[in-house]
Design brief:
Number of helices: 11
Order of helices and strands: EEEHHEEHHEEHHEEHHEEHHEH
Structural class: alpha+beta
Helix content: 55-70%
Distance between the termini: 33 Å
Strand content: 5-15%
Strand order of the largest sheet: 1-2-12-11-10-9-8-7-6-5-4-3
Shape: globular
Number of strands: 12
Radius of gyration: 24 Å
Largest sheet: 12 strands, antiparallel
């Protein structure tokens, strides 16, 4: 385990990832083949195998995390979501006016699925034989996640830092390890400062796309106006092609800005987080380094027709884990012994609770 003294007191215990691409490739290729053969049904069991590998190779203080979900639980949850969406689709097809109501019904049901998924994924994760838990309620998910996301979208991202603060406080302030709580209170000012680079990237990207569009469109319009001034269809087709030509770079720019923003928010939220109201968490992901990992992973995966996906997944996971840690205020073994004394007594009762995963 990697340890380093820090100015705030205590010893920084960083995470460690011990997996490798060769091992994971064997799991990945079997998952792919069985998922194809079973027409997607095996994907639920594939997720379990994948999660067990990544959680089981993530270590803190020499101890690994564990993942206890079963494929059947995930499969049932996915089937429930599929049936619900299918019902919405059938109703809107049979009664077109219902399409006005069904989106609101879905938004009303969404918090329930979110809470159950958060609770399920917490309770099937353990560390040192103590399970995590999530105690949030549906109304909190609706206000913090659903309304926050809608608000961020309607404001064109201006209120995104507030939405990030609401959602992170809701998720992590309701997270438990055994009977010990997590808490975080990221500052709005820090989140808005994190938004500045993504906004600059997006604005520059939009300006470049607009300039290229004008340079391409103006000569094309002139050519069509002189050569085929009566060809309205040709101009319409050209306009549609130009729109698609602009949409793709804009989506790429938006994704790039989103990655930069997401990593900054992660650092801010984790560095503002306390475990058991005493022990600070830590994150020092580099936005440029992580962005390079994501971009290069994508290029290598596409160039190898997906065969290097296991290498890319392991590479990204290792970077995330090894740049995350905790500063226990005291000897970590003594801290964990105190938690185990109370946490182990309640961990067993989570085995059969929250029996399905809805995948949100």
């Amino acid at each position: 385990m990697i340890g380093a003294s820090v100015e705030t007191g205590g010893t920084l215990e960083r995470g460690e990832f011990r997996g490798n691409a060769g091992e994971y490739f064997g799991i990945w290729i079997v998952n792919i083949l069985l998922t194809i053969v079973t027409l997607g049904i095996y994907s639920a069991w594939a997720k379990v195998r994948r999660m067990r590998y990544f959680r089981g190779n993530t270590y803190l203080d020499g101890h690994s995390f564990d993942y206890h979900a079963k494929g059947k639980q995930i499969f049932i949850g996915r089937m429930i979501v599929f049936v619900v969406l299918a019902i919405f689709q059938v109703v809107t097809t049979a009664f077109p006016l219902a399409a006005i109501i069904t989106p609101f019904l879905f938004l009303a049901a969404l918090p329930f699925f979110i809470v159950r998924s958060l609770r399920f994924n917490a309770r099937v994760t353990s560390y040192r034989n103590i399970r995590f838990d999530f105690t949030g309620k549906s109304w909190g998910a609706f206000t913090a996640i659903v309304l926050g996301s809608v608000m961020a979208a309607l404001s064109l991202g201006i209120l995104a830092p507030l939405a990030s603060r609401w959602s992170s406080r809701y998720v992590f302030n309701n997270l438990r390890y055994g009977d010990r709580p997590f808490s975080t209170d990221p500052k709005v000012g820090a989140l808005y400062r994190a938004l500045i680079p993504p906004v600059i990237i997006f604005v520059i990207g939009c300006a470049i796309v607009a300039a290229i569009a004008v340079l391409i469109a103006w000569p094309m319009f002139n050519d069509y106006n002189h050569a085929r001034s009566d060809s309205v269809e040709a101009q319409v087709l050209m306009l549609i092609g130009l729109i698609y030509l602009m949409i793709i770079p804009l989506i790429v720019t938006y994704v790039v800005a989103g990655i930069i923003y997401r990593i900054a928010v992660r650092n801010i939220v984790l560095n503002a987080m306390l475990f058991d109201r005493v022990h600070p968490l830590y994150s020092d992901l580099s936005r440029l380094r992580y962005f390079w990992i994501v971009i290069s992973n994508t290029v290598v995966t596409i160039a190898t027709l997906g065969l290097m996906r296991p290498w890319a997944a392991v590479r990204e996971q290792r970077y995330m884990v090894e740049h995350t840690g905790i500063r226990p205020q005291g000897e970590i073994g003594e801290v964990m012994a105190s938690i185990q004394a109370s946490g182990s007594a309640i961990s067993a009762e989570y085995m059969d609770l929250e029996g399905v995963d809805f995948g949100f």
